Amino acid sequence: MKEKINLAVKGFCMGTADVVPGVSGGTMAFILGIYAQLLAAIRSFDLIWLKYIFKLQIKPAIQRPHFNFLLPLFVGIVCALLFFTRIVPLPVFLHTHPEIVYGLFFGLIVASIIVLLPEIKPLNLSKIFSLLAGIILGWLIVTLVPMNTPDTTSFIFFSGMLAISAMLLPGISGSFILLILHKYDTILNAIGHFNFMILIPFGFGVVAGLVFFSRVISWLLASFYHHTVAIIIGILIGSLWIIWPFQVRQYITVHNKERLISSTPYWPEAWNDTVMYSILMMFIGLGLVLIIYAWSERKT
Q1: Is the pLDDT of residue 22 over 60?
Q2: For the chain, what is the domain count?
């Protein structure tokens, strides 16, 4: 029972990370020491398991997946998602207090970079090249993605695939991908209001992404671990451009809903309450991830 409660708490930490577009559930799993176990549990839903399902062999179909690990983790993740959409409505705060909320996100990403950097030591020329390639890729992602994306069923499905693939990687946030695709508010509001017209295609995209990307990521990390992590860190560094809290943001209203059409970073010229609280939230986000990482390392 104690182990299940511990997994549920870790699931809540992962769910919280995936709600916040700054640090991924994969990063949190990595910090908490359950990343390899998570990938193995996802891969346990394989062709052999499907054969058991089709043959109606209930007992082996239940025993093969790692449900003892996944179920308490899933409960914790769901609790975090509901908490941060119904009790603490982050999508609303993104519009009412963007500098302060993005300050937290910025600190979380910087902390994720700090946590991941030891994984690519010692640095050599090839790792530096991978890091620079990731930085360029990250910058291109945040600057080339269209500002307005469709709300069609197919794009919601595609968003689910990309978001879950990012969640599986230690370093890239699924919520951040949704933020770039401008589906962050859409999905979180759908969760908070149980809008199944959006949640069903998104859920199918998540399942498809889990099946495909869990195997791709496992192969990349097993074959090219240091270079893969270096690219992930570079993507995070490049993505800081759009997460910087002080931006000139322009919105238009489409169907009674605000849509972000442009975002240009700037350096604040005057010290005021907004700047102070934003910097404070940066340090809070930085401290949260570093404290969790230090706690996990001490337990290990």
Answers
A1: no
A2: 1
At 55, the pLDDT band (50, 70, 90 cuts) reads confident
Whole-angstrom CA distances from 225 to 120, 229, 248 are 9, 6, 38
pLDDT band at 122 (very low <50, low <70, confident <90, very high): confident
- Mean pLDDT for the stretch of residues 127-148: 79
* pLDDT for 129: 94
What mean pLDDT comes out for the span 18-24? 63
- Pairwise CA distance, residues 226 & 223, whole Å: 9
Q: Which domain holds residue 131?
A: 2-299
Contacts for 146-151 with beta carbons within 8 Å, 24 or more apart? 147/182, 147/259, 147/260, 147/261, 147/262, 148/182, 148/259, 148/261, 149/181, 149/182, 149/183, 151/186, 151/198
Q: Residue 160's closest CA among 139, 136, 191, 193?
A: 191
How does DSSP assign 169-196, residue by residue? STT--HHHHHHHTT-HHHHHHHHHHT-H
Q: Which residues pair with 247 in a beta bridge?
A: 265
Measured distance CA(125)–CA(123) in Å, rounded? 7
- Where would I find the H helices in the chain? 2-19, 25-32, 35-43, 47-54, 58-63, 67-82, 90-96, 98-116, 125-144, 153-168, 174-180, 184-193, 196-223, 225-243, 273-299
Q: Is 200 exposed, middle or buried (0-12, 13-18, 19+ CB in 10 A)?
A: middle
